[in-house]
Amino acid sequence: MASLAVVLVILGCAAVAFFKGTVVRAFATIIVVVCAGMVAFGFFEVLANVFISRGDNSRFMSLVPWAQTLCFLLLFVLTFAILQTGVTFLTRHPVDLGLLPERIGRVVCGLIAGLLASGLLLTAFEMAPLPLSYPYQRFDPAQLDVKRPKKVLPSVNGLATGLFSFLSNGSFSGKRSFATLHPDYLDQLFLNRLLATGEVGIVSSTAPAIEVPKPGVWPASQAIAEQVDAFVSELRTRGGKIASEQGGASVSLPVSPESGYIPTIVRVGIRKMAIKRTADMSGGAFTPSQLRVICKRKGYGDDPFAGDGTNVYPIGYLASADKIQVSPKIEIATSDFEDSAGAKYIDFVFCVPNGFEPVLVQLKLNSVVEIPRGAIVSADQAPAPAIFKPSPERKRDREKPAQPASPPQQQEAPSEKRGLSDLSRSVTGVDLDN
What we know:
Elements: H1 2-20, H2 23-52, H3 67-90, H4 99-126, H5 156-168, H6 178-181, H7 185-191, E1 210-211, E2 217-219, H8 222-237, E3 241-243, E4 250-252, E5 261-271, E6 285-286, E7 291-297, E8 310-312, E9 314-320, E10 323-325, E11 330-331, E12 343-353, E13 356-363, E14 367-370, H9 392-399, H10 422-428
Antiparallel strand pairs: 1-5, 2-5, 3-4, 5-12, 6-11, 7-8, 7-13, 9-10, 9-12, 13-14
Helix pairs in contact: 1-4, 2-3, 2-4, 3-4, 4-5
């Protein structure tokens, strides 16, 4: 379905350029699409965070998870409309380059503009809290292989994000390179909602919702390293899954089972002010695929936000000094905090590739913090482990016996027509399901 929509957009742009314009105007449209895409990519996160931070007190709470998609589309459409209006005014006197150059040039320019525009639109919808199959399923949770993502044909979203990553890392680079903040951006977007359900949102109303203390990064102990090797071997043999002790279910982890890695502990603090009652905006409930460390090659220089990065996802967290806990969801309640604590620290275990070091930590779509200088220490300087165990309140909730069924006369007959689809529920929320 996504491929069909992409082809229709591309053919539509080519038809408009052929019947309604000239070569000069069609070429100018390509430049306008590129500029509008740069504005959208450059500022959509800043604009979205303005709305997300005010969403928990808003009457439009159900739109908060859609903030990045809506802001991206708004910036793109407004910039495109303004620039295209200027192009129309400047090219009001047509320039005829001849029959064949005009006919061929219009179609070629229209196809290029369609490729870029459809890629930007497809990327915007991948930011939305849609079910995994929309707009297309990039990975299969049953056989998770992060090295072989499925792609749309043609791969217009890869073209759009790759172009902006290249521009943001080159002459048009700012203080923060998109290639560093969002390496493999399309993978990030899909994995951010890989295991997300109605209890886990894709954004946090408090940004940043996390922090990294000093010391915050150190090599894992020998006992932890041996468990990591066993988990990596299990990932290879079970199609990207690890058995979890919580209910015996398997957990799909986006951990690349490569041989050249160093088991590393990264201490991440979940800020108390990020804990919200509304799951769609809480930073205290997240999945392993929503937490990632951005690593860069050692000796990258003084600016951690410049150049290219690579994503590394956790394999679990420390349940004790020598044991890793694998969980499909990490959930923190206010009862997990001490009275004066501003953050709840958890020691996550990552497989950092050889020759790389962590520089940034990201949670969900809108929280990113820099690992402070001096936070990376050797194993002999490592602090006491920050042990995390689910609070007794959540244990009791999970172990609560099932409620007895209602009497038959009080049960409502099921109807296939009742309720919203997954796509509709992602827009309206669960309150309107009936």
